[in-house]
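1st attempt posting a full record on here, be nice pls
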Amino acid sequence: MRLIGTAPDKASILSFVMDGVHPHDIGTIVDREGIAIRTGHHCAQPVMERFGPSTLVEAGGQKILFDCGRGTVLRLQQLGISWSDLDALFLTHLHSDHIVGIPDLFLTGWLLGRRVPLRVWGPEGTQAMMTRLVEAFQFDIRIRPQDDLTPPEGASVVAKDITQGVVYEDSGIKVTAFDVHHGRVKPALGYRVDYAGRSVVLSGDTSFSENLIRFAQGADVLIHEVCLADPKTLKASEHERRVMAHHTSPERAGEVFARVKPRLAVFSHIVLLGDVHASDIVALAHKTYAGRVEMGQDLMVIEVGDRVTVNRRPK
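the predicted structure (as C-alpha cells):
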C-alpha cells in the first residue's frame, strides 16, 4: 500500500500529493504487497510549496483519492499519475479548501482520457453539490462532444452521500468512514483503508476524537491533522480560539497516537495560528507519545508493507 500527498502550512496529509500548512493535504497508497500512500499538507492560503489537502491511496491496482484541494491535478501530474485513471474520490467534509480542485479533476480528467463517470462519495450534501457542479459546466459539457468529438461518457458523475460504516469494497480494498468532530461542520468524516492485512487511517479535520481512536485501532499508519497556536494569539482573538477548537493540538494528537499505537504517525493539514513554527510540532507531540512521528510534505510517498518507508522529494 502506498500513500502520496501534499501538506499545507496547516499541514495536511500522509504520503502526499499535496500538502498544505495553514498560516492557515494530498497523499496516496500504492500496492507493493501492501499499501502506498501519497499525501499532501493543505494550505488555505496560496502557498506554492504546499497545495490543498488531498491524499492518494494506491492498493490492489486501484487509485483512490481522499479530498481534492487546490492543485491536486498538478501534483498528480508531477507524480506521473493519470487523473483520468482514478477509481474513486472520497470527501471528508465540504469545506471549500477540501473540494475546490474537483472541477479541475472532473473536467480535465474527461478532456484527457476519462471515459467513465467520476465516482464520488462524501458526507450529506455531496450528491447535491456534484449535481450542481455538472449543471454549472453544462455549456462546456454540451459543446465539446459536438465541437471536438470529445466522448460524452466521461462528463458525468456518480455521487453518493454516506454515513459511518463500510462504504466501499473492491479488489480486496475496504474503505470505512467514521464520524469525527469538526465544530459545526456536521457530518465530518475520517476514513480507514484496509488491504491485504495492512491499514491506513486518515483523520480528516477534527478535534480530539474518541471515535477516531476506536476506528483506528490496529492501523499501520495514522495520518492526523494538527493545529499549533500561540497563547497570546488565542487570548486576543475569538476567531482564532474558534479555529483552534475545531482542530487538534500536537500534545492531544500525541495522546491519540499513544492510544492507537500505529507503526507510523504522520501530521498533515497543519494549522499555524500566531507566532509559531511547524518545526516545533513533532517535539510537542513527543511530550505525550514516544513513537515514530513524521511531518507531512507535498509529494511525500509512504509505502506500507513489512516495513513502513517514507520517501520525500528533494526541495
